[in-house]
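Database export, one record per block. Field names are fixed; values are copied verbatim from the stored entry.
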Amino acid sequence: MSSDQATLRSPDCALPAPSTGEVVVASRLTASAGPVAGAPAPRTAAAADRLGIDLTSYLRWLPRRSGAWRYHALLFVLGRVMKLRGDSGVDILALRRRLARNDARYFRLPAWATRQAVDTAGVRSEWIAGDHADPGRIVLYLHGGAFAFRFPNAHGQFAARLGRRLRAAVLLPDYRLAPEHRFPAALDDCLAAYCWLLDRGTPPERIVVGGESAGGCLTLGLLLRLAREGLPQPAAAVALSPVTDAELSGETIRTRAAVDPVLPAEMLPLLRDLYLAVEHRRDERASPLLGHYAGIAPVLIQVGTREVLLDDSLRVAQRIHETGGQVACEVWHDMPHAFPLVALLTESRLAIDHIAGFVATRAGWAPPVG
């Protein structure tokens, strides 16, 4: 994949209506809008059933849209470029060097976007903004990378695409990484960046928090910490393939290990232990699966079925629902871990469209037109 290919632009387009290929289940967030058009497609309902997924009131099942050739080619490249290979052992520095080379080779910021360094209360961060960004709309994006890695180009590219779709400026904190800085250092830095936004006069209803993988864990952990400390919640939150269970007890860690092209199941305990001490595994800020979500900002979760962490998303969605929170969970058939970051997947553009629709509903941000 060339750098030029990796920066194909996500067109601004109207929010997609449900197609006949989707299983759409009205969630608590949208139930007031009336019945959802379209009947569940038998093939996708059967696929959900084979995976043991019950399509409850807050779940939405979406089929694969990418053609077979492109889909399998991209999965192959993704596995070669971004997979954390078990044969790299505990050499985090070597892993960082390899992943940094791939990040520089295969990803870049789109030409229409800018990045600007900023100090957010002692945390190095950067603004990512595209054309026509509204300075009154802020996305605080918490990057993934197993709490130990950062991909400046990949994350910058996705932040630019997301910000452009939402007509928002995106703030990316460069939070401290494990193993040099263990829990709760990363979460402390994310909280500092959020409070910096508040201190500079940004109303919380003009902030959306999001993140993928480890960043999804930090997103949910931040919401829980804000509640614990009596600080205002953002307008909405988006968690993409979040890590939610530090005990690693999800069944799909075993059942999806052979098909996950990104996360090697055998490395998850190692990466967890680099970040988290044993005594913190049941802290809700590190294991959001244990949190209580009444009064928390509404959350959109997006996850693929080719993920060892699929159960982390399904179970935390259930937890949010059962503890009084507002949640919508989208399960994307055949998609890999953190698939919205893979710009060449058709589903990536659609996922960003769905995020825009969620934010328009929950944060009151009018969706961009044209």
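Remark 1: Residues 26 and 35 are 7 Å apart (CA to CA).
Remark 2: The longest helix spans residues 346-362.
End of record.
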